[in-house]
Known about the structure:
The chain is α/β, with parallel strands linked by helices. Helices cover 49% and strands 17% of the residues. The protein contains nine helices and eight strands. The strands form two sheets. The chain has a five-stranded parallel beta sheet, sandwiched between helices. Strands 3-4-5 form a three-stranded antiparallel beta sheet, with helices on one face. A hairpin with a 2-residue loop joins strand 3 (69-74) and strand 4. The chain is globular. 39% of the residues are buried.
Amino acid sequence: MVPKHIAVAIDGPVGAGKSSIARAAAARLGYIYCDTGALYRSVGLYCRRNGVDLKNADEIAAQLGKIKLEIRLVDGTQHVFLNDEDVSEEIRLPEISMAASAVSAVPAVRAALLDLQRNVAANNSAIMDGRDIGTVVLPNAEVKIFLTASPEIRAKRRYDELVAKGKDVKFDDVLRELNERDYADMHRETAPLKQADDAVLADTSELDFEQSVDLVCRIINDKIK
């Protein structure tokens, strides 16, 4: 019996294309898309703006009462609002990536965002991507996918994306930051990045964007037949 709502958990490292691929797959399948990384990036942005010590978990946790996050659909696209300000573009800056990694390692931050994420999946057929969706946030998801690509491929994709937005970045810096983020995500004490035991591995190193979306949709459809 097919459940009323289908939950799809997509995990993987930074720069794997999770957000864009998950968003496209959700649109094709008629599911709601929830970018959980954007929530952590928003908390990281708030902390950076307010001079919070990102190495101090207690100081980060103390900010949570001052932060209001909302996910809103604007012209069919997910936007994230931090205290009623649309920060969807700013949270994608490279310097926010490490801030997101720092705050996401704080148990109080993860606990604060957990119910928001689970409520989206409970009330909709949803595709949710992040670092620990299949292992922690939605452990009973009907479909789990671990989406990845080689570090060099991921860094090149991120570099091209930033250059297209007019950012002055160097590829070596993007690759170094990506490797640092990978290490931090995989070695943090709370909810480290790892492939769930029952997740399907999807390596897109040799695939273009449309082929990657096709692969994810095929995995989902095969799982829910």
